[in-house]
Amino acid sequence: MPYAIRKAAVIGAGVMGAAIAAHLANVGIPSLLLDIVPADAKDRNIIARTGLEKTLKSKPASFYSKRGAQLVTIGNIEDDLPKLAEVDWIIEAVVERPDIKQSLYSKIEQVARPETIITSNTSGLPAHLLVEGRSENFRRHFMITHFFNPVRYMRLLELVPTADTDPALLPFMQQFGTETLGKGVVICKDTPNFIANRIGAYGFLSTIQRALDEGYTVSEVDTILGPNMGRPKSAVFRTADLSGLDTLMHVANNLYKNAPEDEQRATFQIPEVVQEIINRGWLGEKSGQGFYKRVKNADGSSTILELNFKTLEYEPQPKHRFDSIGKARNLETPEQKVSAVLNGEDRASHLARETTADALIYAANRAHEIADNIVDIDHAMCWGFNFDLGSFETWDVLLKDQALLDKVFAQRELPALVQQVRSQGDGTFYRTVEGQKQYFDYHTSTYQPVPTAQGVISLSALKASPSSTGSSSVVRDNGSASLIDLGDGIACLEFHTKMNSIDEGIVEMIHYAVEEGSKQFRALVIGNEAPDFSAGANLFLVLMGARQGAWDMLDGAITGLQQAHQLLKYSPIPVVAAPAGRALGGGCEMILHTHHTRALAESYIGLVEVGVGLIPGGGGCKEFLLRHGANAESQKPGKSSGPFTPARRAFEIIAVATVSTSATEAQELRFLRKTDAITVNRDVLLRDAKADAIKLADAKEAGTWQPVQPQMLLLPGAGARLVLEQQIEGMLLTGKISEHDAVIGNHLARVLTGGDCSPVTPVTEQYVLDLEREAFLSLCGTEKTQARIQSILQGGKTLRN
Question: Where is each 3-hydroxyacyl-CoA dehydrogenase NAD binding domain found (predicted)?
């Protein structure tokens, strides 16, 4: 019978188990969260209860919305084990000891239904070892599902089947992990610590050993091997602190014990100084100190100290400056940055070259052993450790530059796999043919398409290849944005300014997409492949215009943005927004004006203009009022609580620059409608948005979808404004806000309550737009707002002046 997961159970309510239960709730799957009963416990569910409570308080948040906790039922494995017969998937997440896991499996086997999927969240124990002694049916329905911490945010999910796993179970779990859980799934061979921890632990431990041998400090290493080497800001030692030094020790010990044939086995012996740190209980973030320690200063601020390996004392971090790092910072792509650092002649470049050579040689030598292809290895490193480039993507940076290759691998022999791709392939592990990315298959020495989720839409591939009609898929490109033919009568409006900030070019392309695009397309999707949908308006232009007194220019720019958004709202064809990452300020306003939104679950949406001393000026106030019930039609007697409620609710959210922490929370805040849809996997967001657009286009053709009709708003007027202004005055008197915060708040209150309008006479949308524009321009003219904008532009910091 085909597999299906409707309800799950997680056994083990520690950090990982509780977070897995939380993420199941995020995607709508109810679960049991079970753990042991402590001796003499009055509350037999205390461990599971505590695990759930900690998860609810965790930062960053484990739940999309705290309401999701209603889908998690706590219990214990003594009283509630029979309930496992009700679930489709049991995830074991108990302590990393084979004997304890096997003892638990024997109990599970007695109560679970024969078709129940059973998996372990072990971070490195071999799957075949865990199922020793189990029945044929148990082994058939068992595999490892290795999530990474924090579960909600780390994309990687490693699947490790055994030789006995049902051949139909692996593709089901791969599909389920990708489409339902939103994970990046890689298939691992049943080897110690699988892919990510095998390659990652080696890279980490070999780097520590080089740092100790050559006298590099903790902060030096993290400065060198951070973003400019395609790594996250936490780099090496900070990453270890975040994951826990005890976790590192466990992974290393497991590899040393279970990989006796590994030629680098000695590397997995924990250095004495690191073992001493662990023995002292300095385990990183969880214990308050590890390679770093945060200390409170007398003034309430904090300072992060670094550990001195020689003295085991914590010391202030000095500033490290390297020519190669400075050069890399000014470059754009990860490939360019990595090349710049590796090509340098300073102390940073030396460490970068040696550690890169160590890690790349190890990955190439392990590839056949741990994975079926290089793509899974690269995905594991990028999704599991937030690297910009995987191991073989980094190999390609070097293989394309013979001089750099010679420099990095001086006195070292290139691995057999690298020699194979040079002699039997095109000389690189990846290539692009007609917009399609292909990888070198080391089994056949041929290039194969990089696997993707079903139906994935790649804008970069579309732009590189002709459309189905033979013409270019790019209908129009003006430098700031492109209109791209997605096929099936659907177009995509893609932004490509820095941070996708909205400028004149984007406004111009919105006009083209609606006015001209509607003549040849059935519907429009607004989306992109960047980390963020849009960070809002171009603040630099706003600041320059204000300081130069170019008020006509600013007035025209705001009017143009308002008109563009109105054009989207009243478009004759359906418009679907597809936000991912940040959609702030003008980006949020654009979403508010579309007919439907297909949002990535990890979307952070908000009207944040008050943070830079402004208010929403592109129609955001108007649309947010409507989202909260200010439509005159809904304000008829008996239909609402009156016109003040929408204004007050909108004010409470906009006045403090509230940003949703997920798409689910965006629905609760009404930045998104309840009817809007959520996708959990970034790779398929545009696919799903296009499908939504097709449905709306079909509905239009069937006569069941109509363009939006002009709306009237009923706003409460000056009396309600006085109430909000009194609240602002109270916050000012108690020191909760600054004087300029009060100025901004009063402008916002005036707009949201409708200025001097009558509380019984509806006003037009344009009336509210005029109020928005007037307030926006007035605030632009103040020195304190200009100072706030400058602070954001220069350092990304909010100034509370």
Answer: 7-191
Extended strands (E) in 44-138: 72-76, 89-92, 117-120
Is residue 124 within 8 A of residue 197, CB to CB? The reply is yes
Alpha helices by DSSP H, 705-760: 718-733, 739-753
Cβ-defined contacts of 107-111 (< 8 Å, 24+) = 107/77, 107/81, 108/11, 108/81, 108/84, 109/134, 109/135, 109/138, 111/81, 111/82, 111/84, 111/85
Binned at pLDDT 50, 70 and 90, residue 511 comes out as: very high
Backbone φ, ψ for residue 712 (5° rounding): -110, 145
**Reported confidence tier of residue 129, pLDDT bands at 50, 70, 90:** very high
Alpha carbon of residue 122 to chain centroid: 24
Edge to edge, what strands does the sheet with 677-679 contain?
Answer: 474-477, 481-487, 490-495, 523-526, 575-577, 596-600, 677-679
Q: How far apart are CA 700 and CA 371, in angstroms?
A: 48
CA distances from 384 to 157, 166, 380, 409 (A): 8, 26, 5, 26
Instruction: State how far the alpha carbon of 202 is from the alpha carbons of 13, 358, 585, in Å.
Output: 29, 9, 43
Q: How high is the pLDDT of residue 360?
A: 98
Residue 358 buriedness (CB in 10 A; 0-12 / 13-18 / 19+): buried
User: Strand pairing of 481-487 and 490-495?
Assistant: antiparallel
Reduced to 3 states, what is the DSSP secondary structure of residue 779? helix
Task: Find out whether 679 and 685 touch, Cβ atoms under 8 Å.
Answer: yes
- Any idea what DSSP says for residue 612? G
The percentage of the chain sitting over the pLDDT mark of 90, rounded to a whole number, equals 92
Q: What is the pLDDT of residues 334-357, one digit of tens each?
A: 999 999 999 999 999 999 999 999
Within 13 Å of residue 537, how many CA atoms lie on the same side as its CB? 30
Domains of the chain: 8-187 (3.40.50.720), 196-446 (1.10.1040.50), 459-615+655-708 (3.90.226.10)
**774 vs 756: CA distance, rounded Å:** 14
pLDDT tens by residue, 112-125 = 999 999 999 999 99
> Positive or negative, the Cα torsion across 69, 70, 71, 76?
positive
* The predicted structure's pLDDT at residue 636: 63
Burial class, 659, CB count within 10 angstroms (exposed 0-12 / middle 13-18 / buried 19+): buried
Write the burial class of residue 606 (CB in 10 Å: 0-12 exposed, 13-18 middle, 19+ buried): buried
The residues with which 792 forms a beta bridge, in sequence order, are none
Is pLDDT above 60 for 469?
A: no
First to last CA, the chain: 65
Distance CA 396, CA 619 (A): 47
Contact 718, 756 (CB under 8 A): yes
What are the distances in angstroms from CA 417 to CA 432, 447, 690?
Answer: 20, 14, 40
The set of residues, in sequence order, having a beta carbon less than 8 Å from that of 642 and lying 6+ positions away, is 635, 716
- Among positive and negative, which fits the CA dihedral 341, 342, 345, 350? positive
Q: List Cβ neighbours of 193 (8 Å cut-off, separation of 6 or more).
A: 123, 124, 201, 251, 254, 255
Task: Give the sign of the dihedral formed by CA 490, CA 496, CA 497, CA 501.
Answer: positive
Lookup: tokens for 680: 């959990």
